[in-house]
Amino acid sequence: MTQASSSAGTPAVFVVSPAEAQATALAAELPGTEVRWVADGDQLLREAHARIPQVVLLYSQVPGTPLGQVLGILRQRAELASTHWLAVGSSGLGDLLAAGADALIGDTTPPPALAAQVRTLLGRAAQQTHLQERLTRLQGRLDGWEHDEQVRDQLVHMLVHDLKNPIAAVIGLLQIVEDDDGLSNESRELLRLCRDESQHLLHLTVNMLDVRKIQAGKMNLRRELMFSPMFEEVIELARGDVGSSLRERRVGVQVARDLNPVSADPEILRRVLANLLSNALKHSLSGSAITVSVQAERGGGGVRLSVRDHGEGIPAEDIPNLFAAFEQSRLTLHGRFDTGMGLAFCKMAIEQHDGRIWVESVRGEGSEFFMTLPYAQDPEDGDDDDYAELLT
């Protein structure tokens, strides 16, 4: 072995050749580089385990195990990913190139020219190693962030999940107390406010749980064929979910007759509509109108649902991030900050139904949220016996 330097961090070049003279000549041209002579392929396998080379010169006329086979083995080792392999010779280089040699050069190349080529490859290897080390560090930091995010997510899930049942119990108890005939009007109004605020908190916790479920792919839709009467029923249930404050608005419902059926989860749509009604309530004044509409979509592709209010409207700069959880936080007309969690749930839920949701708003005039849901599959396109039975 010819060694110019053996200090830590010194780049290594292996010369796999029939005679040590090739390594000696190259070492003279590469001061500060460790140049090792390797006699054959078997020795190369051993040396590559003991020391990771940055460049390996493979002379084609080497006895023993064919270098093409050896190179094929070494190319599979991850720690040699930054190593450059230079085939040297005038014939028999096809196997080396097929096995993964990076370049080839003639065996009559003068040592200075050969050294220049090796220096270029050493520079590339150093750059690749630096990039790989940086990538490894960044991946480690990313893994750490993902772990921390997962822990935080699990903690939030546990807290929200544990809050859900106590809040529901408080709402039930408030309802019982509110039904007491001996209460004064002032006390009854205070209880109603407490119940509405508790209902709002319950909606927030449920939305947080649902958003997490959808993001994790754990929310399974329980689809049913929904006709006009079921849409009316779902809207009425959603109105009840919002609470007594909705009585302070003039709520109108418009559901087209004889709608073609939509395959959807009625419970999920109920919660979507409850969120949109709650949103309309928060951003409009007492006595104003809120309209819920279900109509056939223009073009005949499905059903269009909408919830319209005549409230404050949405600033144009808020609309792009309106459906992103925690992205929009604006003060409502009633002094409450809106986290946007409910709208984030609406977007994810509608998209799970292969539909879409958007908003049109004019500042000072109100907003209208639109949703589209595709019609259920036609029986001619699939064997849907339930669909056929409902139509007969």
UniProtKB/TrEMBL annotation:
Keyword Kinase: yes
Single annotated GO MF: histidine phosphotransfer kinase activity
SUPFAM superfamilies: ATPase domain of HSP90 chaperone/DNA topoisomerase II/histidine kinase (SSF55874), CheY-like (SSF52172), Homodimeric domain of signal transducing histidine kinase (SSF47384)
Any one annotated GO CC term: plasma membrane
Protein name as catalogued: histidine kinase
Substrates-to-products reaction catalysed: ATP + protein L-histidine = ADP + protein N-phospho-L-histidine
Entries under PANTHER family matching the protein: OSMOSENSING HISTIDINE PROTEIN KINASE SLN1 (PTHR43047:SF72), TWO-COMPONENT HISTIDINE PROTEIN KINASE (PTHR43047)
GO biological process: phosphorelay signal transduction system
Enzyme Commission code: 2.7.13.3
Keywords: Kinase, Phosphoprotein, Transferase
SMART domains in the record: HATPase_c, HisKA
Residue ranges of domain Histidine kinase in the record: 158-377
InterPro entries reported in the protein's UniProt record: CheY-like_superfamily, HATPase_C_sf, HATPase_dom, His_kinase_dom, HisK_dim/P_dom, HisK_dim/P_sf, Sig_transdc_His_kin-like_C
